[in-house]
Design goal:
17% helix, 8 helices, 4-stranded antiparallel beta sheet, Neuraminidase, 5-stranded antiparallel beta sheet, 2 domains, 25 strands, alpha+beta
Length: 450
């Protein structure tokens, strides 16, 4: 058992260390003072293990600043002992939500992503050049990226079939290539979930099985478990008439969820029961660009509501899924329903429309039971949720909008300083969307724990 008093003292020491570095950083006349040389004075007399425990309590941005102090501190992120300390005390990890942004399609021919820290309202770069050619980020969980690996010829063709995946921690550049999936799938839907206590993880892959380069058959599911290092086929197939073209999935309380576009619904996969169920979506005849996110620990569906010639105001709305248990002939049955949680204020919605490039009107939007190329006011956007926050990115625009679902506060994000030049032209002129993923940076991700 950890001594609470000792933990408090170590945390205070780390805060003192961070304060002193911050103080001297802003004192331009004394930046070269001996106080920054922690090889002398108080810090030089601390045992190495005590110093590591103090550093482990620092918030992640401060830790990366302090890596420049000396080679020893710079090497800590690769030290198994230091990472074990971080795991034990929960240090060097981000309790508050961050977001990872990538240009869609998120293929790492682009060698970096961008991290947004909502608390500090700051952007930073995340180098991804260490990933192999053709790696495409498809899912994230607890600071771990899951990537599909395509051959170079298939990268140029964008989405195609895939059997190889890898997981990585982009902070430590630790990569693990998973065994090949049992079946090759066309545009697979991929999801990952991490057990933070053991650092074990499971990866779910579902979609159309490739039986030849030009044909698909069946919709199957398989799950990889890092504890066994094996893939296992699910006992049941997906419901008939499925269309999982989005490739996106989210995980909430033991269940993976993804959008089904034909017919329009939400598909749920219970990872323990190995069963798929079909959930009817709200207002399915009127919504456009549906997105599934996790916010405040529950599944939330975000979509534009657009229906001409009916008394249905255009807006962006959010519904939360809630489960109810009903008794039917002495057997319990889980029933689901949707509850509207929030809708974008009308003035903000009009501002939202103004900021979207005018070329978006020529873009096609997926509508489930009703699709028409003559629709007006169609929006194409992407959403990602993390903690209490939902972040919205738009096609043809670098603008991003965020909602604090707890405080019911909307605000525009500061423009990402790294979306400039040709990249900005690609987003504005070619209908691309900046794709977001939930990301909680942690150094001890993918580290084995006994």
């Amino acid at each position: 058992m950890e001594d609470p008093a000792a933990i408090t003292q170590l945390r205070c020491a780390s805060e003192c260390l961070e304060f002193r570095q911050s103080y001297d950083h802003h004192d331009s006349d004394q930046q070269q003072r001996q106080v920054l040389d922690y090889t002398s004075g108080l810090w030089s007399h601390l045992p190495e293990q005590v110093m590591e425990r103090i550093l482990a309590f620092l918030p992640l941005p401060s830790f990366f600043r302090f890596r420049s102090v000396c080679k020893r501190w710079n090497s800590l992120m690769y030290s198994s002992r230091f990472l074990q300390i971080c795991s034990q005390i929960g240090g060097i990890t981000t309790r508050r939500p961050w977001f990872l942004m990538l240009k869609e399609p998120a293929i790492t021919l682009t060698s970096e992503g961008w991290l947004y820290n909502p608390c500090a309202r700051k952007w930073s770069k995340l180098p991804l050049s260490f990933l192999p050619p053709g790696a495409r980020v498809v899912a994230t969980a607890d600071g771990i990226l899951c990537c599909s690996i395509y051959s170079e010829t298939r990268v140029m063709a964008s989405k195609s079939s895939c059997k190889k995946l890898l997981v990585c921690n982009p902070l430590t550049k630790t990569c693990i290539e998973l065994p090949s999936t049992l079946k090759e799938r066309f545009v697979p839907t991929v999801g990952i979930v991490v057990n933070p206590e053991t650092n074990s993880y499971k990866v779910m892959v579902a979609g159309d099985d490739m039986i030849s380069p030009f044909a698909v058959k069946n919709l199957t599911t398989e799950v990889y478990d890092s504890r066994t290092n094996r893939w296992r086929m699910a006992a049941t197939a997906l419901p008939r008439l499925c269309n999982l073209e989005s490739g996106k999935t989210v995980f909430v309380q033991g269940t993976f969820y993804c959008m089904n576009y034909n017919p329009f619904s939400v598909l749920a996969y219970d990872i323990e029961q190995e069963e798929w169920t079909n959930i009817q979506a709200p207002m399915k005849r009127f919504i456009r660009t549906p997105n599934l996110v996790v916010c405040r620990g529950r599944l939330v569906l975000v979509a534009a509501v657009e229906k001409n010639r009916l008394n249905v105001p255009k807006s962006i709305r959010m519904w939360g899924l809630q489960k109810q248990q009903q008794q039917h002939q002495s057997s319990a049955k889980n029933c689901t329903s949707w509850v509207e949680l929030e809708r974008m204020p009308q003035a903000l919605y009009e501002d939202f429309l103004i900021r979207v490039s005018s070329s978006s009107s020529s873009s096609s939007s997926r509508s489930c039971e009703e699709t028409s190329s003559s629709q007006e006011g169609v929006l194409l956007f992407s959403c990602v949720g993390n903690g209490d926050l939902i972040l919205i990115t738009m096609q043809n625009s670098p603008e991003m909008l965020i909602l604090d679902l707890f405080e019911k506060v909307w605000r525009w994000l500061p423009r990402c300083p790294y979306i400039i030049g040709e990249l900005l032209d690609d987003i504005i002129g070619h209908g691309m969307v900046v794709q977001g993923f939930p990301f909680n940076p942690r150094l001890d991700g993918l580290q084995n724990r006994n």
